[in-house]
Amino acid sequence: MLMRNSVKVSSVLLPFILALAAPSAGLAQGPPSDSSLKLHFDFDEAFSAGRVQDVSGNGNDGWQFNPTNWITTGNGVFGTVAAQFTYVGFMYNDPPHVYPLSQYIGVTNLNGFAFLTNGTISFWAKFDTNDDFGMFVLDNGYNGIYAENPGLASNSWSLCRVYHPYLSFVTYPADGSVAPVVSWPDDTVQSGGYTPDLSTTHFHLYTVTIDCPNNLAIAYYDGLPYMAGSIGLPWIRIYGCASIRWLCIGAMSHDGTPQWGDDQYPNAGFFVGRLDDLRIYNRTLAAAEVQALYQGSTYAQNLAIRKSAPQSVQVRWDANSNAAYQVEYRSNLTGTAWSPLQSAIPGSVTNSIIDSILGQPTRFYRVRVLP
Question: What is this structure's pTM?
Answer without folding.
Answer: 0.77
